[in-house]
Amino acid sequence: MMSAAAGAVGGVVGREGRCAPQMLSDTAVAILAFLQTIAAAGACEECVGVYVGVARHEAIDSIRELVDASRILCIYGACGLCRQRRLVARVWRPASAA
Ligand SMILES: [Zn+2]
User: Fold this and answer.
1) pTM of the model
2) 61-92: b or e for each residue (b if 16 or more CB lie within 10 Å)?
3) How many domains does the chain have?
4) Ligand 1 centroid to 41 CA: how many Å?
5) pLDDT 10s digits, 47-80
6) Which range of residues forms the domain containing residue 72?
């Protein structure tokens, strides 16, 4: 008897990012912390991946996640680390900064 019913416990449908702005992945949280340390400069997704220790595509996914959550913004310019002109992620400027 092959009762390998592949346990269809269907029900957990995560990834609803819209109405849960606080739900950031561990990688996204790490990236946010990293970007906050270099707030003035910003970093491209490649440098973010290197510094946080994740693959580039994972860095891109998490950057997108942070942008969706309005935690960071992406601008086209020179990366503060590798100096290449590309899409750079950076945190919003703190309101207290003159
Ligand atoms: Zn870079």
Assistant:
1) 0.72
2) bbbbbbeebebbebeeeebbbeeeeeebbbbe
3) 1
4) 10
5) 999 999 999 999 999 999 999 999 999 999 999 9
6) 23-91
